[in-house]
Amino acid sequence: MAEAELISSIVTFFKRVGITASDVGFNVSSRKVLQEVLRCYSIPENLFEKVCVVIDKMEKISIDEITKELKSLGMSEEAINELLQVLSVKSLEKLEEILGAAGEAVADLKQLFFLAEKFGYSEWIQFDASVVRGLAYYTGIVFEGFDRERKLRAICGGGRYDHLLSTFGGDDIPACGFGFGDAVIIEESLSLTYPKIVTEVNNFVLNLLLKEKELLPELSLQVENIVCALDHHLQGAAAAVATRLREKGQSVDLVLESKPLKCGVQTSSTDKCTKVDIGGEF
Question: For a Cys-Cys bond, which of 54, 144, 167, 245 suits 157, CB 3.0-4.6 Å?
Fold first, then answer.
């Protein structure tokens, strides 16, 4: 659920700066897809992160080079061929045919695409099994934003990393997030307005310009609406309500967990919220 709202927040930003689904899209997959394939061929878990790093190079080096690097990690030719076959899949239905419906990878991805429809950004996303993200800490859903014309490097990327905090000595808690390539976004935005002009923009300079022209917006920290679902099956409906409110320019805190009614009321009191929208049976 959290990954679905992250992508929704990015899509909302793009819409507000004039970027549409015909300009930008998202490739989505899950690290668990790769884990399930490697598990079938008894590939040791300690090789998983190294395999991810190799797979992340697929758009940068040839398949022959990818195969060579995977062999150097100790993978058999049969395992490599099966892995490359799965990574070429661009359809969630086809992935389900290969891996079956019982695994976590397919279940997580189906839930994400279901919620994407409820949030209203289905046209922005597509399944691509080759997306794994090169960083070692990802543990589940991963995604990358790209421009449709493929002229720019990755616009943004992120996913789930449930074990990241323990890397720094903390306790593991479920977590996910994303990072923007802001220079790429500015270039994309300008190219829509001035397609014949090649422009290099520094974000620091842009920030100074906005301040000088008194155009830098002041953002309110107050939440106007809190939307929460009292039942897991109503998360899609809650996502749809949150999207409609945000499209009207209102700030919304979407409660991701299915919690009792009193939790929504307590949250609204803490955040000084003016309205609480609750879905469920009373």
Answer: 144
Whose CA is closest to 2, among 243, 257, 268, 179?
Answer: 257
Round to whole Å and give the CA distance between 64 and 70: 10
What's the Rg (C-alpha) of the chain? 21
What's the token pair of residue 124? 């922005």
* Orientation angle between helical segments 92-99 and 104-119, nearest 10 degrees: 160
All residue ranges of the chain with pLDDT < 50 are 194-206, 208-210, 282
- Position 228 scores a pLDDT of 83
- At residue 69, the pLDDT reads 92
Q: State both tokens at 169.
A: 């000595």
Say if CB 280 and CB 229 are below 8 A apart: yes
Distance (Å, rounded) from C-alpha 182 to C-alpha 42? 41
pLDDT of 282: 44
- Residue of 282, 278, 232, 223 whose CA lies nearest to 257: 232
C-alpha dihedral, 41 to 44 to 49 to 52, nearest 10°: -10
Q: Which of 163, 162, 165 is nearest to 175 (CA)?
A: 162
Distance in angstroms (rounded) separating the CA atoms of residues 245 and 253: 10
**Calpha distance 42→118 (Å, rounded):** 38
172 Cβ neighbours under 8 A, 6+ residues apart: 162, 163, 164, 165, 166
**Under a CB-based contact definition with an 8 Å cutoff, are residues 124 and 11 in contact?**
yes
Can you state the angle between helices 235-247 and 104-119, rounded to 10 degrees? Answer: 40
Whether residue 71 contacts residue 80, with contact meaning beta carbons closer than 8 Å, is answered with yes
Sheet (strand 176-180) strand order = 125-127, 24-30, 141-147, 156-160, 176-180
